[in-house]
Amino acid sequence: QDVELGGYASFYEMELAAGAEALSQTVASLVDVDGSAIMDALDVDPFELKRIRKVVVVGAGTSYHAGLVGRFAIEHYARVPVEVDVASEYRYRDPIVDDGTLVIAVSQSGESLDTIVAVREAMAAGARAIAITNVVGSQLARVADGVLYTRAGPEVSVAATKTHLAQLAALELLALWLGELRGVLFPEEAIERRRALGEVAQAVGSVLEQTEALGATFRELASSQRFFFIGRNVALPVAMEGALKLKELSYLPAEAYAAGELKHGPIAMLDREAVVVALVPADRLRPKALANLEEVKARGATLVAVVAGEDARVTELSDVVVEVPATPPLLFPFVGVVPLQVFAGTIARERGLDLDRPRNLAKTVTVE
Ligand code: AGP
């Protein structure tokens, strides 16, 4: 196993370190040298996609979180309403589906039963379906009308890392393509966005280079018992993913909240014992995010900020600052999630847990 792990202590850490590569391989497989989209493998009639009236993204766990990020891109670029649901809820809520619905099912394994059934049922009601999966020939890939494969390579760790980055990339590219098809985006604009996505792999790489330094800082927080993750807008699903990773690997209570919701209840839980991880993208909501950091600080909680670009005010307010490269706002999740993956791994390792064998979990859930 040592050889397989190439010097890493676990598959989790090895795969986390491969995030930039997973992202760039996925982009390379879906973007041509001239910057145009390669969507022929998708095998869904572009005319059908042009006239869809609603998109529904379904998935579970980390794949669901990717879908939540994807919603921002699809609504922004393609101007079509998007619903995102966990597959196990979607299938039982008697959803409104017709032949103007496009279901995008996100699943690393392509074998999560809830996701497969959600897609089957939506298709039976007239929807078209596209699968985003990392496993060629998986059941989901076979059930859906079309597939976009992520090219992250096999993922062994139960807690997903690199495949999440690849999912985010596939969703962004699908959003751009829908935007072009629907005449919302000019081809040159779409090319420009795809170029920006290609560049984000380097930004992710630069965050990954800080893994050791981040670990050394995060280690100090390993004895804390309560963790909160907050973000707004595109950073909220990042917060949710950070909390999920920590729960899976460390078994500690870790909850994510929309930062604006704190004052509607959750802030009552904050005290000196709590650790709050705040996501601060470089977007128009930055002043709002800063106001949330102030609220957290005033309650005496330990504040960890993951901030895009340098920010003196954030540094002043926070106990730990993780600076990630400033990207176009919609691409923040790519660089924002990596420190949270490192965070979860560090806390769990420090607590003596086996990162590759989290208790009670299976890599793929093929039962209801
Ligand atoms: C991720 O770290 C989890 N192990 C889990 O939430 C996972 O994302 C979920 O079970 C969905 O799996 P899938 O992507 O293979 O469908």
UniProtKB/TrEMBL annotation:
EC supergroup of this enzyme: transferase
Transmembrane stretches, start-end: none
SIS domain sequence ranges: 45-184, 217-358
GO cellular component terms given for this protein: cytosol
GO molecular function, one term: glutamine-fructose-6-phosphate transaminase (isomerizing) activity
Catalytic activities: D-fructose 6-phosphate + L-glutamine = D-glucosamine 6-phosphate + L-glutamate
Keywords: Aminotransferase, Glutamine amidotransferase, Repeat, Transferase
GO BP, one annotated term: fructose 6-phosphate metabolic process
Organism superkingdom: Bacteria
EC number: 2.6.1.16
Protein name: Glutamine--fructose-6-phosphate aminotransferase [isomerizing]
Taxonomic source organism: Acidimicrobium ferrooxidans (strain DSM 10331 / JCM 15462 / NBRC 103882 / ICP)
Residues of the full protein shown: 246 to 613 of 613
